[in-house]
């Protein structure tokens, strides 16, 4: 692994933070090749009528560039 | 939404971080109107006799002020 | 509690962040006495072939020193 | 001035960041006495259909407590 | 809104910080779809012969990804 | 202790930082119940005619909410 | 440009943050040669009797040293 | 001094922050050789029944390793 | 220069941090036009069998957008 | 007060942090006019033969510029 | 790799920062098994009589714990 | 060493970061007496036509004040 790029995304789930992370990685795989990991830098919840409706994560996703 | 306030709370659960977040939002609803979300800025565990007894979160809770 | 030490560890789990925290506390108990808590300061995932293979946490573990 | 409190608010304006700050101070005056200043710690814009619709500031407002 | 990307840009204006923000959002709209907002994280001025010639902002622009 | 709130105050003393902390906790006790601790995050001095006239602290005070 | 110095100033205006920046650069030009730019790192307002009386910026001003 | 280690401790005193620092250095000397200094990175107070019962510091203690 | 983008990359070298920076800029030039500079925000080494095998940098690369 | 400068100093005392702050302000008064305050941003101790020999503070000292 | 520890060291060299990093890793290998990497978080130089006499790095060294 | 000042400079070299540090210390010696060290807080490169033309460091230089 010589050069990698880091891109920032936010992902949401109605279930949990970990489900949001999984969802974000899946979506990243659709457009990026060679995703090697991610750093979760923010955790937020969206609340509506007193209930948590979304668990949102902000992640820095790393993917290796082809030579 | 014109002006909102942000208040900091800590909440604990014997089960998980996400349960602590849910508990904190529920308690906030008792005294605050129009909670719109929260940012989880710290995750801690309390350990006793080698076992995790509490999962604690520190959250910044946002609620919209009435005009 | 008069003087405590803080040591930094990383722990991984194939299941979830919370399982990684539990694993890290268990491993700390093997070599440290009087662990009183931990602060989770980083959450990362390791991805291989498009799937999350490891949930990794970096934790600052506090343990009380004997007098 | 002996003891002061600091409270965090977000305020929005359709015009500019400075208008949002002014709006936030005005709203604070309605419920807080003796506001002495504020520190603007975040500037954000909300975009809709390609245009900026809101200029939002997050401010820490200080007000002096009566003895 | 399920997954969004965050991209960092710098934009300049000879007039004001707010004009630089507006300019940055306009340029982002040319290549990105569904821009939803931006966080202004740095404000700088460029000075030449004693006068401010450019007002520069560094912004994190968020845009929603199509499913 | 299940849910606690954190509020930010500044307090001043003509004597020392520690006296300012003590003063801030005393003032907090007048309006808040169940104060459990505080984190001192800023230390400042006010100088007039070359002499320190005030020792000022900014503190995050934690107090436990009744169930 | 080989070696430059960075100095921190605060400047105030009764009009706006941008006017305070302009004022700070003008004052810097009186005593410093070759000012090349500034980074605005803090924005504050001073409030008196419910109204904003001063817009204050803290800036790191860069100026190039003569060889 | 060629290589040194940095270890983090928390120490408490019923008297003052400076007494807690002194206490932490004394305890460090019992198990570490060649302590050369410490950086105090957190100051906290523990409050019980409205009174400060403990002044707590978190310190990064540096000690030189033997060759 | 009116609008620029900032992208984050990591680059590695078996020789030195500066060689890793050079390598990262070269790789950026292959896919980005008008690279104007980079800010090195992290320095890491990878160790295997007691020896440093890789010098890794994380860089924020700036490139100017065509009008 | 229209424009002020901020300068960083470190000061030491064999007695306490507060004595070091006082010493730093006194020394600043010798070369700077109109010192209005200081922000203490670092506290360190120097240890020799197991005892604290110096209490060191790093301070940002503000002084008002003459018009 | 399941659980790893992170320890902080400072290392010095009369030659360069990279030589100091190499020196720190070599010294770590003497007392720690399975060092896997290090993050360089501070770079400092010591100056005497106008010349740089030491290049000093502060590093967080990671080593894998045996099961 | 009783009171020291800290001043911020940027220095550039066409060769390497370490050469830039050396250049910055040399330039500081021309105007400051008793420079005792420096902390390198930023590393940047300037790129022109795809090649690194300048290695730039931002340093906080400490110098001891005469009594």
From TrEMBL, chains A, B, C, D, E, F, G, H, I, J, K, L:
Q: Which InterPro entries match?
A: Dodecin, Dodecin-like, Dodecin-like_sf
Q: Which domain of life is it from?
A: Bacteria
Q: Which Gene3D superfamilies match?
A: Flavin-binding protein dodecin
Q: Which ranges does the record mark as transmembrane?
A: none
Which PANTHER family does this one have?
CALCIUM DODECIN (PTHR39324)
Q: What protein name does the entry list?
A: Dodecin family protein
State the organism of origin: Microbacterium istanbulense
């Amino acid at each position: 692994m010589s050069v990698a790029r880091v891109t920032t995304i936010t992902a949401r789930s109605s279930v949990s933070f970990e489900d949001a992370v999984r969802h974000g990685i899946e979506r990243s795989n659709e457009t990026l090749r060679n995703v090697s990991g991610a750093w979760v830098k923010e955790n937020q919840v969206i609340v509506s009528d007193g209930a948590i409706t979304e668990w949102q994560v902000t992640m820095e996703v790393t993917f290796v560039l082809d030579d």
